[in-house]
Design a protein that fits this description.
The protein is an alpha+beta fold and about 375 residues long. It folds into three domains: about 120 residues, Immunoglobulins (Immunoglobulin-like), CATH 2.60.40.10; about 170 residues, Rossmann fold (3-Layer(aba) Sandwich), CATH 3.40.50; about 35 residues, no CATH class. About 25% of the residues lie in helices and about 35% in strands. The chain has seven helices and 23 strands. The strands form seven sheets. Strands 6-7-4-10-11 form a five-stranded antiparallel sheet.
Amino acid sequence: MTAFWIILIVGIIALLEVAYYQKRALSRVTYSRSFSRPRAFAGEKVELVEVITNEKLAPVPWIRVESRVSAALRFKSGDRLGVAADSFHKSLFFLGSYSRITRRHEITCMRRGFYNCGLVSVSASDLFGLAGARRDLETGAKLIVYPAIPSRAELPEEALRWQGEMSVRRWIMPDPILVNGIRAYRPGDPRRDVHWAATAKTGELQVKLRDYTVSPRVMLLFNCQIRDALHGGMEPEDVAFLEGGVGICAALAAWCCSRGVELGFASNGENAETGADCPFLAPQGGEGRLDSVLEALAKLNIKMKIGFHALLDRLIAENMTGEDIVLVSAYRSESLEKRAETLRRMGNSVSWVSIRGDGEGRRSA
Protein backbone atom coordinates (compact mmCIF):
# COMPACT_ATOMS: atom_id res chain seq x y z
CA MET A 1 0.00 0.00 0.00
CA THR A 2 2.85 2.35 0.85
CA ALA A 3 4.43 1.72 -2.55
CA PHE A 4 1.14 2.61 -4.23
CA TRP A 5 0.98 5.99 -2.49
CA ILE A 6 4.63 6.70 -3.27
CA ILE A 7 4.04 5.93 -6.96
CA LEU A 8 0.86 8.03 -6.95
CA ILE A 9 2.56 11.01 -5.33
CA VAL A 10 5.56 10.77 -7.69
CA GLY A 11 3.18 10.55 -10.63
CA ILE A 12 1.26 13.62 -9.52
CA ILE A 13 4.50 15.55 -8.98
CA ALA A 14 5.70 14.48 -12.45
CA LEU A 15 2.44 15.60 -14.06
CA LEU A 16 2.59 18.94 -12.28
CA GLU A 17 6.22 19.36 -13.32
CA VAL A 18 5.37 18.53 -16.93
CA ALA A 19 2.46 20.98 -16.92
CA TYR A 20 4.65 23.70 -15.40
CA TYR A 21 7.57 23.33 -17.81
CA GLN A 22 5.27 23.15 -20.84
CA LYS A 23 4.08 26.65 -20.04
CA ARG A 24 6.91 28.19 -18.03
CA ALA A 25 10.17 26.57 -19.13
CA LEU A 26 11.33 29.66 -21.05
CA SER A 27 9.43 32.18 -18.96
CA ARG A 28 11.77 34.93 -17.73
CA VAL A 29 14.69 33.27 -19.52
CA THR A 30 16.72 35.70 -21.64
CA TYR A 31 19.50 34.93 -24.09
CA SER A 32 21.88 37.21 -25.98
CA ARG A 33 24.93 36.71 -28.12
CA SER A 34 27.40 39.07 -29.73
CA PHE A 35 30.89 39.15 -31.16
CA SER A 36 33.69 40.75 -29.17
CA ARG A 37 34.10 43.18 -32.06
CA PRO A 38 31.93 43.71 -35.15
CA ARG A 39 34.80 43.74 -37.67
CA ALA A 40 37.96 41.73 -38.17
CA PHE A 41 40.41 40.77 -40.91
CA ALA A 42 40.58 37.29 -42.38
CA GLY A 43 42.96 35.23 -40.25
CA GLU A 44 42.23 37.12 -37.04
CA LYS A 45 40.50 35.75 -33.94
CA VAL A 46 37.31 37.04 -32.31
CA GLU A 47 35.08 35.81 -29.50
CA LEU A 48 31.45 34.79 -29.69
CA VAL A 49 29.94 35.77 -26.33
CA GLU A 50 26.78 34.05 -25.09
CA VAL A 51 24.84 35.27 -22.05
CA ILE A 52 21.83 33.36 -20.75
CA THR A 53 19.84 34.34 -17.66
CA ASN A 54 17.11 32.69 -15.61
CA GLU A 55 15.17 35.34 -13.68
CA LYS A 56 12.77 33.04 -11.82
CA LEU A 57 12.87 30.78 -8.78
CA ALA A 58 12.36 27.49 -10.64
CA PRO A 59 15.54 26.12 -12.24
CA VAL A 60 15.70 25.05 -15.89
CA PRO A 61 17.40 21.63 -15.85
CA TRP A 62 18.04 21.44 -19.57
CA ILE A 63 18.32 24.18 -22.16
CA ARG A 64 19.84 24.07 -25.63
CA VAL A 65 20.72 26.90 -28.00
CA GLU A 66 21.25 26.06 -31.68
CA SER A 67 22.15 28.21 -34.67
CA ARG A 68 23.66 27.93 -38.12
CA VAL A 69 27.27 29.10 -38.29
CA SER A 70 29.38 29.30 -41.42
CA ALA A 71 32.26 26.87 -41.72
CA ALA A 72 34.44 29.92 -42.40
CA LEU A 73 34.18 30.74 -38.70
CA ARG A 74 36.29 28.05 -37.08
CA PHE A 75 35.77 27.38 -33.38
CA LYS A 76 38.74 26.66 -31.16
CA SER A 77 39.46 22.95 -30.81
CA GLY A 78 38.19 21.53 -27.54
CA ASP A 79 35.62 24.25 -26.99
CA ARG A 80 32.60 23.12 -24.99
CA LEU A 81 30.04 23.12 -27.72
CA GLY A 82 28.77 20.94 -30.51
CA VAL A 83 29.26 21.71 -34.18
CA ALA A 84 27.59 19.37 -36.63
CA ALA A 85 29.24 19.25 -40.06
CA ASP A 86 30.76 22.67 -39.38
CA SER A 87 27.37 24.30 -39.98
CA PHE A 88 25.43 24.22 -36.67
CA HIS A 89 26.55 25.60 -33.34
CA LYS A 90 25.00 24.02 -30.22
CA SER A 91 25.36 25.03 -26.57
CA LEU A 92 23.85 23.18 -23.60
CA PHE A 93 23.11 24.86 -20.27
CA PHE A 94 21.75 24.09 -16.80
CA LEU A 95 20.20 27.19 -15.26
CA GLY A 96 19.66 27.35 -11.52
CA SER A 97 17.36 29.76 -9.73
CA TYR A 98 18.10 33.39 -10.53
CA SER A 99 21.31 32.51 -12.33
CA ARG A 100 23.33 33.81 -15.24
CA ILE A 101 25.88 32.01 -17.42
CA THR A 102 28.35 33.72 -19.75
CA ARG A 103 30.37 31.72 -22.27
CA ARG A 104 33.09 32.94 -24.58
CA HIS A 105 34.02 30.92 -27.65
CA GLU A 106 37.21 31.74 -29.54
CA ILE A 107 36.70 31.84 -33.31
CA THR A 108 39.20 32.14 -36.15
CA CYS A 109 37.96 34.03 -39.22
CA MET A 110 39.07 31.80 -42.07
CA ARG A 111 37.98 34.02 -44.96
CA ARG A 112 36.36 37.35 -45.74
CA GLY A 113 32.60 37.69 -45.70
CA PHE A 114 29.48 38.94 -43.99
CA TYR A 115 28.28 36.52 -41.31
CA ASN A 116 24.82 36.83 -39.79
CA CYS A 117 24.75 34.56 -36.74
CA GLY A 118 21.87 36.30 -35.02
CA LEU A 119 19.02 33.81 -35.47
CA VAL A 120 18.99 31.12 -32.77
CA SER A 121 16.61 28.42 -31.61
CA VAL A 122 16.26 28.07 -27.82
CA SER A 123 14.76 24.85 -26.44
CA ALA A 124 14.12 23.99 -22.77
CA SER A 125 12.88 20.87 -21.03
CA ASP A 126 12.11 19.47 -17.61
CA LEU A 127 14.38 17.13 -15.65
CA PHE A 128 12.89 14.01 -17.24
CA GLY A 129 12.74 15.36 -20.80
CA LEU A 130 8.96 14.87 -20.90
CA ALA A 131 7.92 18.44 -21.61
CA GLY A 132 9.45 21.62 -22.82
CA ALA A 133 9.20 24.74 -24.92
CA ARG A 134 10.94 26.21 -27.95
CA ARG A 135 11.48 29.78 -29.09
CA ASP A 136 13.27 31.41 -32.04
CA LEU A 137 15.21 34.58 -31.25
CA GLU A 138 16.97 37.21 -33.32
CA THR A 139 20.03 38.36 -31.37
CA GLY A 140 21.55 40.66 -33.99
CA ALA A 141 24.98 38.99 -33.84
CA LYS A 142 26.73 39.93 -37.08
CA LEU A 143 30.37 39.88 -38.09
CA ILE A 144 32.08 41.58 -41.02
CA VAL A 145 35.38 39.99 -42.00
CA TYR A 146 37.59 42.17 -44.18
CA PRO A 147 39.76 40.49 -46.81
CA ALA A 148 43.37 39.95 -45.85
CA ILE A 149 45.59 42.56 -47.49
CA PRO A 150 48.29 40.91 -49.64
CA SER A 151 51.91 41.97 -49.31
CA ARG A 152 53.73 43.66 -52.19
CA ALA A 153 55.35 40.36 -53.06
CA GLU A 154 51.91 38.82 -53.58
CA LEU A 155 50.62 41.54 -55.91
CA PRO A 156 50.71 41.21 -59.71
CA GLU A 157 53.20 43.29 -61.65
CA GLU A 158 50.55 45.63 -63.09
CA ALA A 159 49.43 46.63 -59.58
CA LEU A 160 52.99 47.42 -58.53
CA ARG A 161 53.63 49.32 -61.75
CA TRP A 162 50.48 51.38 -61.24
CA GLN A 163 51.56 52.25 -57.69
CA GLY A 164 54.98 53.27 -58.94
CA GLU A 165 53.59 55.50 -61.68
CA MET A 166 51.33 57.18 -59.19
CA SER A 167 54.21 57.80 -56.81
CA VAL A 168 56.59 59.40 -59.34
CA ARG A 169 54.23 61.63 -61.29
CA ARG A 170 52.34 64.66 -60.00
CA TRP A 171 48.94 63.47 -61.10
CA ILE A 172 47.95 66.71 -62.75
CA MET A 173 44.29 66.39 -63.71
CA PRO A 174 41.59 68.82 -64.85
CA ASP A 175 39.55 70.15 -61.95
CA PRO A 176 35.77 70.03 -62.59
CA ILE A 177 35.26 73.32 -60.70
CA LEU A 178 38.19 75.54 -61.70
CA VAL A 179 37.79 77.17 -65.18
CA ASN A 180 40.74 78.91 -66.79
CA GLY A 181 39.30 79.95 -70.16
CA ILE A 182 37.66 78.50 -73.27
CA ARG A 183 38.83 76.77 -76.43
CA ALA A 184 37.37 75.21 -79.56
CA TYR A 185 35.57 71.89 -79.23
CA ARG A 186 37.56 68.73 -79.97
CA PRO A 187 36.11 65.27 -80.69
CA GLY A 188 35.73 63.38 -77.41
CA ASP A 189 35.26 66.45 -75.20
CA PRO A 190 32.48 65.79 -72.65
CA ARG A 191 29.18 67.54 -73.31
CA ARG A 192 29.19 68.91 -69.76
CA ASP A 193 32.19 71.12 -70.67
CA VAL A 194 30.42 72.94 -73.54
CA HIS A 195 30.39 76.70 -72.92
CA TRP A 196 27.00 77.61 -74.39
CA ALA A 197 27.36 81.40 -74.10
CA ALA A 198 30.68 81.38 -75.97
CA THR A 199 29.25 78.94 -78.52
CA ALA A 200 26.32 81.27 -79.23
CA LYS A 201 28.67 84.25 -79.55
CA THR A 202 31.18 82.63 -81.91
CA GLY A 203 28.80 80.36 -83.80
CA GLU A 204 31.10 77.38 -83.18
CA LEU A 205 31.18 74.89 -80.35
CA GLN A 206 33.39 76.10 -77.50
CA VAL A 207 34.33 74.22 -74.35
CA LYS A 208 35.57 75.29 -70.93
CA LEU A 209 39.30 75.04 -70.39
CA ARG A 210 39.74 73.50 -66.97
CA ASP A 211 42.40 74.54 -64.54
CA TYR A 212 44.48 71.79 -62.98
CA THR A 213 44.82 70.19 -59.59
CA VAL A 214 47.22 67.70 -58.09
CA SER A 215 44.55 65.92 -56.03
CA PRO A 216 44.23 62.35 -57.31
CA ARG A 217 40.90 60.56 -57.39
CA VAL A 218 40.93 56.80 -57.88
CA MET A 219 37.97 54.64 -58.87
CA LEU A 220 38.48 50.91 -58.29
CA LEU A 221 36.27 48.62 -60.38
CA PHE A 222 36.22 44.87 -59.72
CA ASN A 223 34.87 42.47 -62.34
CA CYS A 224 32.99 39.46 -60.94
CA GLN A 225 32.87 37.77 -64.34
CA ILE A 226 35.36 35.11 -65.37
CA ARG A 227 34.66 35.82 -69.06
CA ASP A 228 32.62 38.25 -71.14
CA ALA A 229 29.81 35.87 -72.11
CA LEU A 230 28.79 34.36 -68.78
CA HIS A 231 25.71 32.16 -68.66
CA GLY A 232 24.62 30.39 -65.48
CA GLY A 233 26.77 30.06 -62.41
CA MET A 234 30.53 29.75 -62.13
CA GLU A 235 32.57 26.75 -61.13
CA PRO A 236 34.03 26.78 -57.58
CA GLU A 237 37.54 27.03 -59.01
CA ASP A 238 36.52 30.16 -60.96
CA VAL A 239 35.15 31.78 -57.80
CA ALA A 240 38.35 30.87 -55.94
CA PHE A 241 40.37 32.40 -58.78
CA LEU A 242 38.41 35.67 -58.64
CA GLU A 243 38.97 35.85 -54.86
CA GLY A 244 42.50 36.88 -55.76
CA GLY A 245 41.04 40.01 -57.31
CA VAL A 246 39.34 40.92 -54.04
CA GLY A 247 42.74 40.83 -52.33
CA ILE A 248 44.23 43.03 -55.06
CA CYS A 249 41.45 45.60 -54.56
CA ALA A 250 42.03 45.55 -50.79
CA ALA A 251 45.77 46.16 -51.26
CA LEU A 252 45.23 49.01 -53.73
CA ALA A 253 42.61 50.57 -51.46
CA ALA A 254 44.92 50.44 -48.44
CA TRP A 255 47.76 51.93 -50.50
CA CYS A 256 45.59 54.82 -51.75
CA CYS A 257 44.17 55.69 -48.34
CA SER A 258 47.60 55.62 -46.72
CA ARG A 259 48.61 58.39 -49.13
CA GLY A 260 45.52 60.54 -48.81
CA VAL A 261 44.12 59.64 -52.22
CA GLU A 262 40.37 60.06 -52.70
CA LEU A 263 39.04 56.57 -53.35
CA GLY A 264 35.90 55.04 -54.81
CA PHE A 265 34.81 51.46 -55.45
CA ALA A 266 32.22 49.60 -57.48
CA SER A 267 31.64 46.07 -58.73
CA ASN A 268 29.14 44.16 -60.80
CA GLY A 269 28.80 41.56 -58.02
CA GLU A 270 26.15 41.01 -55.37
CA ASN A 271 25.82 42.47 -51.88
CA ALA A 272 25.83 39.39 -49.62
CA GLU A 273 23.87 41.18 -46.88
CA THR A 274 20.98 42.47 -49.01
CA GLY A 275 21.13 40.41 -52.20
CA ALA A 276 21.09 43.68 -54.17
CA ASP A 277 23.79 45.17 -56.37
CA CYS A 278 27.12 46.00 -54.80
CA PRO A 279 26.98 49.62 -53.57
CA PHE A 280 28.56 52.29 -55.77
CA LEU A 281 31.04 54.32 -53.72
CA ALA A 282 32.06 57.50 -55.50
CA PRO A 283 35.63 58.73 -54.92
CA GLN A 284 35.95 60.32 -51.51
CA GLY A 285 38.65 60.89 -48.93
CA GLY A 286 38.79 61.34 -45.22
CA GLU A 287 38.92 59.17 -42.15
CA GLY A 288 37.00 55.93 -42.42
CA ARG A 289 37.15 55.72 -46.21
CA LEU A 290 39.28 52.59 -46.15
CA ASP A 291 36.82 50.90 -43.79
CA SER A 292 33.95 51.71 -46.18
CA VAL A 293 35.73 50.12 -49.12
CA LEU A 294 36.92 47.10 -47.13
CA GLU A 295 33.37 46.58 -45.86
CA ALA A 296 32.06 46.63 -49.43
CA LEU A 297 34.71 44.04 -50.33
CA ALA A 298 33.82 41.92 -47.30
CA LYS A 299 30.14 41.88 -48.27
CA LEU A 300 30.85 41.24 -51.95
CA ASN A 301 29.40 37.99 -53.21
CA ILE A 302 31.21 36.91 -56.38
CA LYS A 303 28.04 36.56 -58.39
CA MET A 304 27.32 38.71 -61.44
CA LYS A 305 24.36 41.05 -60.94
CA ILE A 306 24.98 43.13 -64.07
CA GLY A 307 27.48 42.81 -66.90
CA PHE A 308 30.81 44.55 -66.34
CA HIS A 309 30.24 46.45 -69.59
CA ALA A 310 27.01 47.84 -68.05
CA LEU A 311 28.99 49.11 -65.06
CA LEU A 312 31.38 50.95 -67.41
CA ASP A 313 28.38 52.31 -69.33
CA ARG A 314 27.15 53.80 -66.06
CA LEU A 315 30.39 55.75 -65.64
CA ILE A 316 30.10 56.98 -69.22
CA ALA A 317 26.44 57.98 -68.78
CA GLU A 318 27.35 59.93 -65.63
CA ASN A 319 30.05 61.81 -67.58
CA MET A 320 32.78 60.73 -65.18
CA THR A 321 35.90 62.76 -65.83
CA GLY A 322 39.19 63.53 -64.12
CA GLU A 323 39.42 60.12 -62.43
CA ASP A 324 42.05 57.43 -62.46
CA ILE A 325 40.03 54.29 -63.11
CA VAL A 326 41.56 50.93 -62.23
CA LEU A 327 39.90 47.86 -63.75
CA VAL A 328 40.67 44.68 -61.79
CA SER A 329 39.56 41.87 -64.06
CA ALA A 330 40.28 38.27 -65.00
CA TYR A 331 40.01 39.09 -68.71
CA ARG A 332 39.96 41.87 -71.28
CA SER A 333 37.60 41.91 -74.24
CA GLU A 334 36.98 44.10 -77.26
CA SER A 335 33.71 45.44 -75.81
CA LEU A 336 35.43 46.41 -72.54
CA GLU A 337 38.40 47.96 -74.37
CA LYS A 338 36.03 50.17 -76.38
CA ARG A 339 34.39 51.47 -73.24
CA ALA A 340 37.77 52.00 -71.58
CA GLU A 341 38.83 54.09 -74.58
CA THR A 342 35.64 56.15 -74.31
CA LEU A 343 36.42 56.86 -70.66
CA ARG A 344 39.94 57.96 -71.64
CA ARG A 345 38.53 60.40 -74.19
CA MET A 346 36.34 61.82 -71.44
CA GLY A 347 39.41 62.88 -69.48
CA ASN A 348 40.05 59.84 -67.32
CA SER A 349 43.04 57.55 -67.14
CA VAL A 350 42.16 53.85 -67.33
CA SER A 351 44.50 51.11 -66.11
CA TRP A 352 44.05 47.35 -66.23
CA VAL A 353 45.18 45.04 -63.44
CA SER A 354 44.92 41.39 -64.40
CA ILE A 355 44.14 38.92 -61.64
CA ARG A 356 46.39 36.48 -63.47
CA GLY A 357 49.28 38.90 -63.09
CA ASP A 358 50.52 38.27 -66.63
CA GLY A 359 49.89 41.77 -67.93
CA GLU A 360 47.25 40.63 -70.37
CA GLY A 361 44.57 38.69 -68.54
CA ARG A 362 42.35 36.15 -70.20
CA ARG A 363 41.21 37.25 -73.61
CA SER A 364 37.51 37.07 -74.27
CA ALA A 365 35.65 37.97 -77.41
